[in-house]
């Protein structure tokens, strides 16, 4: 019998932390509870992906023109179903859907929140058994309750997020989230089917020795990024350089490692992606909220990610995030060499 008497489950934690939000009536708690349910359903499918016919391409392409893997579609469908079932979500913006998904039932029209998500980020890694993840961001709607949500509810600055998090389906499955009072990590215990508090009050190191960037795009990088990469590679005992290069190609996995160990993740503008590759509303905003809540930073090379007013739900931005001292050093190079 596994001893669980001192373990706090996600649901116990959510309810306990409800008091962080005076006047809360449990809407966000119920919404987060349903996120946990969907995460367990997707986790079960991800773990079996190699065994059942759920691998391989779904035949369609998502709005990004990327081949949709079946697990992408599975994750998108099950998160949407769980959000609708919660009764606390009015509409969803998803990487897998060009337009927002508006729930039109009476309960949803009166719901307080809208939800942005990348239901399965890093999906190109699915069939090579590399960690993938779900990333989500929750806003209180700005349109009046009692009517359907609109696109206006989704084009809010990241500073307006009420909650954000990610699920990493890796060697273990973890859910990491914030509601603006610190960052907490929960590890799924498959023996009881519960996310259990394993990483309370995560704080990311101010400095690190890991840099994560796809150096295959080096030729197209801004001069300041090229100079920063060379800075990471130079020998300097005092600042523990040369740093270590680690790049998994799955944002959730690269970010999570750097969050815990210290480091910087960079996806700058390239010729192929002149505005960067990562999407503001459902990748950069939630990751930035977590980074800042853990004592780190997240910018587009110039300003805080969280201060950017989105002009579309699939808008891309350059992304620099992680240990504060490393992000600041990168910005020094960008300001000097690129006049950013
Ligand atoms: P590249 C995965 O497709 C993703 O959206 C992120 O998870 C990841 O950080 C990035 O793209 C990897 O992009 O161009 O290096 O393969």
UniProtKB/TrEMBL annotation:
Residues of the Fructose-1-6-bisphosphatase class I N-terminal domain: 9-200
Summarize where Mg(2+) 1 binds, as residue positions.
Answer: 95, 118, 120
Similarity annotation: Belongs to the FBPase class 1 family.
Q: Which residues bind substrate?
A: 121-124, 214, 247, 277
State the reactions this protein catalyses: beta-D-fructose 1,6-bisphosphate + H2O = beta-D-fructose 6-phosphate + phosphate
Question: Subunit structure, per the record?
Answer: Homotetramer.
Give the pathway annotation. Answer: Carbohydrate biosynthesis
Location of this chain's protein in the cell: Cytoplasm
GO terms (molecular function) for this protein are:
fructose 1,6-bisphosphate 1-phosphatase activity
Record's protein name: Fructose-1,6-bisphosphatase class 1
Q: What class of enzyme is it?
A: hydrolase
Question: Which PANTHER family does the UniProt record give?
Answer: FRUCTOSE-1,6-BISPHOSPHATASE-RELATED, SEDOHEPTULOSE-1,7-BISPHOSPHATASE, CHLOROPLASTIC
* Ranges in a coiled coil: none
InterPro entries assigned to the protein according to its UniProt record, in alphabetical order:
FBPase_C_dom, FBPase_class-1, FBPase_N, FBPtase
Cofactor note as given: Binds 2 magnesium ions per subunit.
EC numbers for this chain: 3.1.3.11
* Residues given in the record as Mg(2+) 2 binding sites: 118, 121, 283
Q: Which cofactor does it need?
A: Mg(2+)
Fructose-1-6-bisphosphatase class 1 C-terminal domain residues are 205-334
Q: Which UniProt keywords apply?
A: Carbohydrate metabolism, Cytoplasm, Hydrolase, Magnesium, Metal-binding
| The keyword Cytoplasm is annotated on this UniProt entry | yes
């Amino acid at each position: 019998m596994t001893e669980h008497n001192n373990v706090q489950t996600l649901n116990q934690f959510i309810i306990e932390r409800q008091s962080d939000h005076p006047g809360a009536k449990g809407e966000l708690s119920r919404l987060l509870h349903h996120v946990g349910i969907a995460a367990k359903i997707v986790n079960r499918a991800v773990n079996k992906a190699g065994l059942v016919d759920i691998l391989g391409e779904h035949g369609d392409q998502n709005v990004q023109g990327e081949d949709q893997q079946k697990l992408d579609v599975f994750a998108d469908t099950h998160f949407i179903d769980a959000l609708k079932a919660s009764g606390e979500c009015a509409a969803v913006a998803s990487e897998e859907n060009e337009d927002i998904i508006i729930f039109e039932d009476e309960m949803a029209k009166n719901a307080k929140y809208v939800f942005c998500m990348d239901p399965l980020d890093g999906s190109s890694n699915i069939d090579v058994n590399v960690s993938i993840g779900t990333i989500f961001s929750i806003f209180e709607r700005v349109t009046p309750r009692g009517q359907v949500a609109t696109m206006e509810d989704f084009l809010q600055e990241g500073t307006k997020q009420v909650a954000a998090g990610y699920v990493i389906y890796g060697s273990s499955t973890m859910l990491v989230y914030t509601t603006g009072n610190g960052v907490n990590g929960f590890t799924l215990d498959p023996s009881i089917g519960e996310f259990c508090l394993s990483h309370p009050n995560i704080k990311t190191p101010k400095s690190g020795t890991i840099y994560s960037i796809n150096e295959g795009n080096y030729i197209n990088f801004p001069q300041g990024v090229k100079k920063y990469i060379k800075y990471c590679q130079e020998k300097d005992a005092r600042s523990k350089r040369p740093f270590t290069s680690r790049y998994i190609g799955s944002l959730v996995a690269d970010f999570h490692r750097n969050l815990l160990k210290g480091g910087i993740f960079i996806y700058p503008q390239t010729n192929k992606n002149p505005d960067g590759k990562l999407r503001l509303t459902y990748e950069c905003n939630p990751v930035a909220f977590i980074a800042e809540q853990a004592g780190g930073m997240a910018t587009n090379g110039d300003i805080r990610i969280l201060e950017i007013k989105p002009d579309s739900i699939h808008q891309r931005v350059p992304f620099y995030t992680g240990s504060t001292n490393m992000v600041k050093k990168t910005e020094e190079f960008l300001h000097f060499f690129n006049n950013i």
